[in-house]
Fold these 2 entries.
Entry 1:
Amino acid sequence: MAKENLKKTPLNEKHRLLGAKMVDFGGWEMPVQYSGILEEHRAVRGKAGLFDVSHMGEIDVQGPDALILVNKVITNDAAKLAVKQILYSPMVYENGGVMDDLLVYKLAEDHYYLVVNASNTEKDFQWLLENTEKLNVQVVNISAHTAQIAIQGPKAEVILQKLTDYNLNSLKYYRFDFAKVDGVAGLVSRTGYTGEDGFEIYAGPEFAGQMWEKILDAGKDEGILPIGLGARDTLRFEAGLPLYGQELSPEITPWEAGLGLFVKLDKEDFIGKAALVKQKQEGLTRRLIGFEMVERGIPRSHYPIAVNGQEIGWVSSGSYAPSLDKNIGLGFVDAQFALLGAEIEVVIRGKGVKAKVVKTPFYKREA
Amino acid sequence: MAVLQDLKYTKEHVWVKFEANRARLGITDYAQETLGDVVFTELPPVGKLVAKGESIGIVESVKSVSDIYTPLSGRVIDVNGQLADSPELINQDPYGQGWLMDIEPFDAPQMDILLDAAEYEKFLAQIQVEQENQQNQTGP
């Protein structure tokens, strides 16, 4: 068990009062579950759930050359963004391996806001600083001054609307705006990591506690529950959303991870472009697949994947999927086996257990 | 955390109920609470010979995989077939419908590694103290 000093979000005390099980998540003390992962998972799919995601990193990029810097480090193209629009993108090293995946918020023509994975915040911040040479731009790590709360699920809009005068219905997917929630000025975006509709709210840490309680209160009749990292993981996984450290790492390129949609080779030079162009020309040797178990067994991260006893890859994420009542996984395999319907085996405790390659996302909400 | 008086326990959080010629095994209330929602079990085939201390089954929750260690040597004479479709019985009724298997022990119960209810409660209290100490160490 971790004995070092863990970082705490402004909502740490609230989680304890709610009886959450706390765990060390990349140096942060975070709630892994409150009432139970399955119950929390189902609440988000059917009603609504509230997440503390204040551990996420926020980096502010401002100045005449802000767009140049952002577009230099990401593989997607921020030039096409409108103000108050959001972009998802991988950020890669010179060799094409993924450093992180992030959201780019365009606040103004010369002002962007990057939301990055908690454990990568310092690494990403340093990377941005290293790349500001000759650019007129200011990069500030504002993570410590930002709390982030996510409300997700089919009832998210109804619940949050009770606390704001802003017309949430007018806020489109991957757009954001400045709005008062419970009287507190913040930034509200229609984004999330669950496969459901929902919002992410950014505000000063001093307001987080009250906002958290107000939202739980406002959603009581709709059946809102606080949601821990355990259900956050099963939700994102069913929705086929990659997780840094599992589907994404410096050893994996965006092509391999199935994120080609977010690599824009037609934009001018960016870090890693040459390597990604080369890999595309040469063809991929491995690819991310989704699979479901045909025989009994739960795939888990790092279990080998085999065909006819020959190892062809590994499981990156695997779990029982509560919304599908199936055991499913994501994994990297030799490209020749990345075919829908292909029969593979997951090696569980030394035994090959049958599975088959299926389409991702495993779960898609009804439009 | 429920601890039943008429059962024996192991430090791996397995309970044992001795009857005439069989010993019924399951996981304790503390174990199911710690694991969280159980979603999968793997039990040995009936007839299998098992040796004291070996892993004889697997209980998986959403986030974890746990071995079940037998405190007795013997032969597996029955397993709880309901768990294949309803693993949640382990959470709902760990000492009843959530039982795992019956073993016919080879010798008289080896009481050296089995705790009675009072001893197991004491053991749980000890674990709790250790956890609290650790939490205090992570405090500000």
Note: The longest strand of chain A covers residues 310-321.
Entry 2:
Amino acid sequence: MGANGAGKTTTIRLLLNFIQPSSGTASIMGKDIVKDTVEVKKHVGYLSGEIALWPKVTGNEMFAYLSKLQSGVKKDYLAELISRFEAEPDKLIGELSKGNRQKIGIIQALMHQPDVLILDEPTSGLDPLMQEVFYATIREASARGAAVFVSSHNLAEAQRMCDRVGIIKHGRLIHEQAVKSDENLAGTTFRVVLAHPKDAEKLRANRALKFISHEGHTVVVQPKRPSPRLSPS
Amino acid sequence: MKDVVLWELKRRRTALLWWSIGSVVLAVFIMALFPSISDQAAQLNKVLNTLPPELRGLKTGGAKSVDVGDPVEFLNAQVFYATLPILWIILSVTRGAGILGREEQSHTLELLLARPISRVRLLAAKALAYTGEFAVVCGATLLAIVVCAPLFELHVGSDKLAITTLYTALFSMSFGYIAFALQAASRFTKRSATAVAVAIGFGGYIVASLSSLTDWLKWPVKFMPYHYFVPLDPLQGKSPRGLLVYLVAVFVIGTTIALLGFRHRDID
């Protein structure tokens, strides 16, 4: 999770080796994302944030083509996904609405039942009913043992799909924690504006608080247990 | 790799059909003019050879005189030196810059690179698809030239016609390959890669055509591909060594640059 420009999409594009890292390493399923990128992609399903598909082909033609490039696509499962998302695979993609194009994009990411799903703001353009179908499908993938890596700026959505949430800011992971479905993450983070920046050290020393970030007069903290004396910022 | 090539050819089938029809019709139309031109060759040669050399050179590949009544010189000047290369350079540059550039511009390249296919294999598949598309158009034209030339009294051996068409096709294709390599190797947009290839192609055509008439162009013309393109040589059964060296250089250097660049560059 992160604000616009925080680096969510850049992180995903790095993991898929679309852009090259200037330093550091990362691995997916124990394989280096740069050296073993082909091996990594055998296990990955990817949905980009700004879905781009070939407009002059039908969904079915596209699925057939991509199935040849990626093994493991089962016709039955593909048909099930098409039916579940009520997609229109016989129409030219260029004639579909944004939501229906998004469904085609989701199906191509899921159709080979990958071990790792990398999804960049996946529910963008989907109506609420389809979002529910999508969450259910993701839960299924997760139950099957797939790792689901999702970027979002919708906290409620993250809580519905994720076991852990990481917060990214200016390209750095500033916080990571497990998510409990009954926990309201939004209510536990506080932005505190201090009269004196040096008071930040007092907050940092407070064992009841998890210190998240500090910039100038502003400190972001999280109570380790909900506190009635603090109100959400 | 085969799947990417077939996908590209299938998607482009309508455009390829029209390009093939256009190329065939143009070549046959020009050849069909030969019987009536050869009847008036003496007068036409007289008029043509009195034109300012700069104008004549643009149509004859810089030759100082021309005999339009001779089938070989007619084919050289009217079909192989300018008409077909200009048409084919437009096709080759458009496709060379677009076959990868258009996918990158529209972000569909990500759909392919998210699959377990290496960048090198994808690049090779795209280059093969580009070659295949070009081969369809040039192959149809070659067939039309070989079949129709005798019908229009252009009595030149089929082998010479075939080899000259092949050289013309490879020469035209080289400009598209320059655009392809530039686009693959760097973050040249489709438009910039096209502009560079067109400048090398058509700029070279003008410079090469005028070079035999202007002393100061004799040195820079050696860097222009058109300088090495003399279709008269294969039509007369001579080996076009300069052209072969140029073609090998473009395809080897282009491939090396494209591979080295595309393997490690960021995708837009």
Note: The radius of gyration of chain A is 20 Å.
